[in-house]
Amino acid sequence: MAILSIQSSVIFGYVGNSIAAPVLQTLGHDVWRIDTVNFSNHPGYGKFTGAVKELEQLDNEIKGICDLGILPNCEVILSGYLGEIDTAASVLKTVNLVKKQNKAALYVLDPVIGDDDQIYVKEGLVEVFKNKLLPKADVIIPNRSELGWLSDIKICDLSTLKIAAMNIIKRGPKNVIVTGVLDAENILNYAFSNDGIWMTSVSRIKQKFSGTGDLFSSLFTSAFLETNNLSNALAFATEGCETVLRATCERNSKELSLISTLSNLSTIKTNRSAKLIL
After folding, report:
1. pLDDT in tens, 225-243
2. pLDDT averaged over the chain?
3. Which of 23, 29, 99, 248 is the most buried (most CB within 10 A)?
4. Element (H, E) at 87
5. Angle at alpha carbon of residue 186, lines to 110 and 265, rounded to 5°
6. Neighbour-count burial for 224-261, b at 16+ CB within 10 Å, e otherwise
7. Residue ranges with strand state E in 20-126
8. Which residues lie across from 119 on neighbouring strands?
9. Cα torsion angle, 117, 121, 127, 133, sign
């Protein structure tokens, strides 16, 4: 199954397509990658070199794929970090082109905006995600903070989480996956649809790592494409992230220990279910 992944890329470390490509390929998918930025490393280090890809170059790469006549084989478009507001136009164009040639293709939107109530993308990108890309998505995977920004609802408990997610569903996406909801001891991930609400829970890890959202979206996309089941996909992605994070902590690594755990990801079962809570 082919997945078109439109995300960032770094030379050193693991975020965006530098995660998505190896993870999705290990799980058996062809990955067509379009890099929105090419940086030396992720900005979490405080400094980096590289550049956001020019809109003309992005459009040219998309045209090259179209000219090959392969878009009917694309099962999923997965988009993440954009870099610039104009990049959204290329993503939107690509989604429309793929869906025109394969009506069953899914658009999975990872609205990379920020975390822990801190926005770290350029001004205007929140509105672009909210008004341009969100209505086109079949699945959207925000973290708790991103869900609040996109829904204009302050998330403070499960009730407001549900209200915000259902608000998003009314605007286009059929499924809303919310990651990184914290309680005293655990990290909770939720899946919302008109058919129910599911939850997974894992023990909190004190250390924070860049790329965990990109890892989750890759794992979820793979499992959902295989099973078409929200509960199974949520459970698979949660377990996969925990596997990588535990290995990273054991190695005392600043970057995700991705390559050394890839073989472990392929052994996780996709028939495990998340907890149905409503």
Report:
1. 999 999 999 999 999 999 9
2. 95
3. 23
4. helix 87-101
5. 55
6. bbbeebbbbbbbbbbbbbbbbbbbbeeeeeebbbbeeb
7. 30-39, 50-52, 74-79, 106-109, 114-115, 118-119
8. 114
9. negative
